[in-house]
Amino acid sequence: xxxxxxxxxxxxxxxxxxxxxxxxxLVPSLARYREEYLLARLERSQIAxxxxxASDGMIAEDLAQELLVNAGVxxxxxxxxxxxxLVLSSPIPAPISATYDLRxxxxxxxxGDVVAVLMTPENQIIRLIGNPxxxxxxxxxxxxxxxxxxxxxxxxxxxxxxxxxxxxxxTALLLFWAVRLLMVVPIKRMVRHMxxxxxxxxxxxxxxxxxxxxxELRDAEEALFAxxxxxxxxxxxxxxxxxxxxxxxRVSHDLRNILSTATLLADRMEGSDDPAVARAAPKLVGxxxxxxxxxxxxxxxxxxEEPPPRLARFDLAALAEDVMENEKLAAxxxxxxxxxxxxxPGMTVRADSEQIFRxxxxxxxxxRQAIEATGKPGTVEIxxxxxxxxxxxxxxxxxxxxxxxxKEHLFTAFQGxxxxxxxxxxxxxxxxxxxxHGGRLDLNRTDADGTEFRIWLPSKGGI
Length: 463
What we know:
The chain crosses the membrane at residues 6-31, 160-183. GO terms for molecular function: phosphorelay sensor kinase activity. It catalyses: ATP + protein L-histidine = ADP + protein N-phospho-L-histidine. It is an enzyme of class 2 (transferase). With 463 residues, this protein is of the alpha+beta class. The chain folds into three domains: 2-169, no CATH class; 215-303; 312-458, Heat Shock Protein 90 (2-Layer Sandwich). Helices cover 57% and strands 17% of the residues. It contains ten helices and twelve strands. The chain has helices spanning 6-54, 61-71, 107-118, 147-199, 215-269, 275-303, 316-330, 353-374, 404-408, 426-436; strands at 75-80, 83-88, 96-101, 125-130, 139-145, 312-315, 337-342, 348-351, 378-386, 390-397, 440-447, 450-458. A five-stranded mixed β-sheet has the order 2-1-5-4-3. Helix 3 links the parallel strand 3 (96-101) and strand 4 (125-130). The radius of gyration is 48 Å and the shape is elongated. The protein starts with 5 loop residues before the first helix and ends in a 5-residue tail after the last strand. The model has no long low-confidence stretch (mean pLDDT 80).
């Protein structure tokens, strides 16, 4: 609909505001017109009374009535020399309903009086008090009916209202076309550019060129230009990376098969009678195992398409105990690693239990392997606390801490490995799974006394 458009709403608002402004002009205009109308009746009444006084009262009754009719009043009272004198009179058809003093009326009083006249359709008799013109006395009083006054006010008001409607419509149309030309057309142009760009974001020819002279719209076009330029570059980079990733995956797949065969041959070399070969075989097996792990990790990371988490409440302490039991079984023989769980019994978390198991498993495994690499006893601990807006889970260890290079690229694939032979994917996958829950995985501290990570899971939309 037209009213749902920016142009339509601006047109209606313009008409409304112009009409509102005209109302503030119309009412004072009507008040002023009423005052002039009544002052004119007072002046005519004074002229008629002076004509009678000039003839020393020697005037026919018919002529006196004609003077009153011409003045538009029923009687005239003059006060001269502190004497109140009824100069002209005729029968009053009804009692006087109100008296108005026009000698020094205030603006609010005039507005209130004109509103009262317009809101009273019945014909009433009112008394007016005013100052005679040219100091022809101290005071003049007249009585008159309100029907003629109300009729003239309606005619005058209808003319003013018609003119106001014409002015408001003309102003609204002019503003409508001005806004359409200066705002709506440029906005539609940007919308067309965005729609065309969305269909083919890799096409640089569809990037908008800022041309508008209005500063705000020019800023919007320049922001859109910068966004489209950056996005097109990122899409091209992503396409190149995708192609590179596919090539790496194919090479890794074939290389893994080759390395697996080489590993089998190296295993057989360990039983060689040649001492030199027997000493070199374990190192060769270790190198081949790391190469195979790198290929498998690359393939797994390239194929990872994590589904959205299935949120449900589960017992966090029980899940953490399962993680630690698995790591106890996987611990190296002779390793002195203690696993502690400091989670309140019965504390439930709203998350995907399988994904959180993987997150905790990756992090506890990293901590265990870091302690085992030192050859010294150590502790891995999982603790948790529930807060007003979510849950905080901490995974800490008493290992040697992270090396500088690992801290710089902690959540970067293939660059954040903290142990020899690691490929740096465990924390990357863990961070992605936590972000899928709307949470965060942060490094809380790392030093010679150990390392602590913090997982924050929000509780919004809890069940």
